[in-house]
Amino acid sequence: MKIVKTSITLEELDTLAKSRFGHLIKAVVDIQLQIMVVDADLHADEEAELLAHGSKQSDLWGINIYPKLEGSEFIEFDSMINLRPSQNNLSRGVGDPQIQQKIIKVVNKLIKK
What we know:
With 113 residues, the protein is of the alpha+beta class. It contains 3 helices and 7 strands, in the order E-E-H-E-E-H-E-E-H-E. The strands form 2 sheets. A 5-stranded antiparallel beta sheet has the order 1-4-3-5-6, with helices on both faces. It is globular, with a radius of gyration of 13 Å. The model has no long low-confidence stretch (mean pLDDT 96).
């Protein structure tokens, strides 16, 4: 597991993806602190790591990153940690377009393409 606070390259993500799932890498993004953690078997493990480092659960969203894809296929908004009735998110996706945009902004800031 790796907490990304400044940047990570697409090449690094691709290497991490190949060593675990092949074509994707799981990540959890903190939309408030603008950091993310990557490279774990479960989004829940990444969520726990960020919570241990001071993140608030309401700011954490699970995604999958596909380093070899582009555009809307680069980020997949799908994780069990996203299922949050208390925040009006009733699916594994991220239903709020504003939250999706915040996630995309953090990912684009942290990943050097």
